[in-house]
Amino acid sequence: MLQQFENIQKEISKDLSTVSDAESLFKVKVKYLGRKDGSITKLFDDLKNWDLQKKKEFGAPLNELKKFAESSILQKETEFGVSQNTSVDFSVQGTPVLKGHLHPITLIQKEIEKVFWGLGFDIELGPEIDSDFYNFEALNIPEFHPARDMQDTFYLDLSVPRNQPGKSVLLRTHISNMQVRYMKEHKPPYAVVLPGRVFRNEALDASHEHTYQYMEGFVVGKDITYANMVWTLDYVMKEIFGQDVKTKLLPSYFPFVEPGAEMAISCLICKGKGCSVCKQTGWVEILGCG
């Protein structure tokens, strides 16, 4: 029996010395350690029928033979693994994993929020789907008010939630729906900026879109004047566009404020000299206020 073990060990060494690739190595592994027909596996199957004395005498040598086969084959597998990858330079930096990035609109929104935050403003988000009460009526725009004609609205086939004011559900046409909501939950004085998306039922063209980003802010407190608003907006424009940018206010009409104004900044392209971007005026309208 011991002579048989020795012969098998010599055959393993001989077979492993002649293998030239992973496929032939696998055949050697199956020949000796295969679950069904491996010669060493069959010896272990016969071990069950040996008497106690034979098990004591040949059990340990049989285990040593199996360990020899496993270690020899594993060593050969390692050698093939190294030889097959000698052309790979593991010191070369791998291909970087590409990550997503924030949309340019999101980046500028965060930049503006940061400026207002530094001035002590709160940043508040609100629902894009709201009732006509918060979007119109709470802002003194009743059902047949002409100001509603200025904002073509997407109405939804939904019912206003129970115990909530309003007659219909819509996609908000402005961020002003958050003014009433914010004022109901906070006591003055306060200063808040309200960013988000708004929706208008508009015909699409090069300068009109039905969904766009919007940002609105308002301040409530004692001794707050028009001058405070002018200074704040001028400061924000300079923080966003550069300290050399100039601002000016022009009287204008907006349904929610009186007096209302449009703020313009000096053209960033021509520096106020006049170009096609600013329509030769040197100024670009940037926001409405009041």
TrEMBL record:
Enzyme Commission no: 6.1.1.20
Any one GO cellular component localisation term in the record: cytoplasm
Aminoacyl-transfer RNA synthetases class-II family profile domain residues: 108-265
SUPFAM superfamilies from the UniProt entry: Class II aaRS and biotin synthetases (SSF55681), tRNA-binding arm (SSF46589)
Keyword terms of this UniProt record: Aminoacyl-tRNA synthetase, ATP-binding, Ligase, Nucleotide-binding, Protein biosynthesis
One Pfam family of this chain: Phe_tRNA-synt_N
Gene Ontology terms: biological process: phenylalanyl-tRNA aminoacylation
Top EC class for this record: ligase
Protein name, UniProt field: phenylalanine--tRNA ligase
Naturally occurring in which organism (per UniProt): Candidatus Doudnabacteria bacterium Gr01-1014_77
